[in-house]
Amino acid sequence: MLSGNWPSELSQFLWVAPTVLLGGLAVVLGKRPFYREFPCFFAYVLYVVADNILLYALLKVKVSGNHYAYAWAATLLPSIALRFGVIDEVAKNLFRESQFLKVAARRSLQVITGLLLGTGILFAVWAPGNTRPQWFASVMVVNRGAAMVQTGLLLSLLLFSRFLGLSWRRHAFGITLGLGILASVDLATYALRAEFAGRNWTRFLNFILTGTYFVCASIWTRYLLVPELKPVPVTVVPDEEVETWNKELQHLLRQ
Amino acid sequence: MEQGIATLAPAMIAAWFLVVVGLIALAVLLYAAMRSRTSPGDLEEAVQAFRSLDIEAFRNLVDSDEEAFLRDHLPLRKFREIKRQQAWAAFLYAWEAGRAATGLAMLGQAAQRSSDPKIAASGAQAAENAFRLRVQTFKAGLILLAGVLFPDLQSRPIPALVDQYERSAETLFLIGRVSSARGLVGSKSA
Q1: Helices A199-225 and A170-195 meet at what angle, rounded to 10?
Q2: Which residues 110-139 on chain B approach chain A with CB closer than 8 angstroms?
Q3: pLDDT tens figures, B142-161
């Protein structure tokens, strides 16, 4: 049976659970050579854990709303920077095996980043936020813009991989999926938070955000703790069929 | 007050628009996650697609001499009609070649992870060629679509695509030859 205080208890659970999950994940990953392959993601996980502990402690010692908001805003910017670092890492991992893609796809990603940044700035001008104090609205708008660029970049990586037939490594895909979910929910919730400052709205959106952190922490744990699949011999098509392709291709080349 | 409402309305529209964008992005990500579970890629389909393409017919469709001949000898209306049909047919070829290139890239990457250095090397080469072919088919597709929409425009030559297709076919042949001698290898993606 639910206690009368269940919203507060659920909120605490959604705050503590992803922190514990990510803390455990960081300990396990720290013992593996994983952090050499994805150093930014490793740093991001450590940062999120430290950030959550700090903000939770501030809430528990009952600092004023303003002080809490300053602390939250101050810890937001490094988090945004680290997320961009993670996206760069994932992109490098995806294009690692092709010299052509290292140049062509990264150039395309730079163009996409430019376009998304431009769109983010246009939105900042068009909808500069309606909450008070104004600096708080500005932080929401900056976070909204960053989430827009991050979501766009992560979706572009998924579309590129599908378009080009690139195969993902399990770990890189898990990181992309988790971060993509986080960024897209950030985009939706910060778009609303920039415009609606009501207490009920804030509480509802905080639920969604902390719930999303929990989901993403679970996704990262699931994908990163399961070992990468090793290449296994698969007989996709019988040898005689390969021979038939060869004949067909020889025929094609002779034309 | 009216002014306040007027300035608030675009902000509200922007907010809800971004909410929709965020939710669509979320749906795409979840779809990608589910797809990655189910389909490691059908390599046989890729080769079937490669096999079904008649590159010589494509070459004829985008031949600039042929176009000049038609332009000189047909009435403008008839020329436009034929040009549109040719450009559309060539676009479909480029589309299929692009799909085949995607399949070839997957085959190449699977072979690239082989423990046999020869298969791995030819796999890497095939994947690299397939990526280039994919990008070229995309560019060619855009040019051909422009030809469908504006048949009066002088067509830009698309020779690189044909060359790239042949290079890709050669590497596919190479993988097939090495693989059939040693057993085909592959791996599942994420």
Answers
A1: 180
A2: 110, 112-115, 124, 127-128, 130-132, 134-135, 138
A3: 888 888 888 877 666 555 55
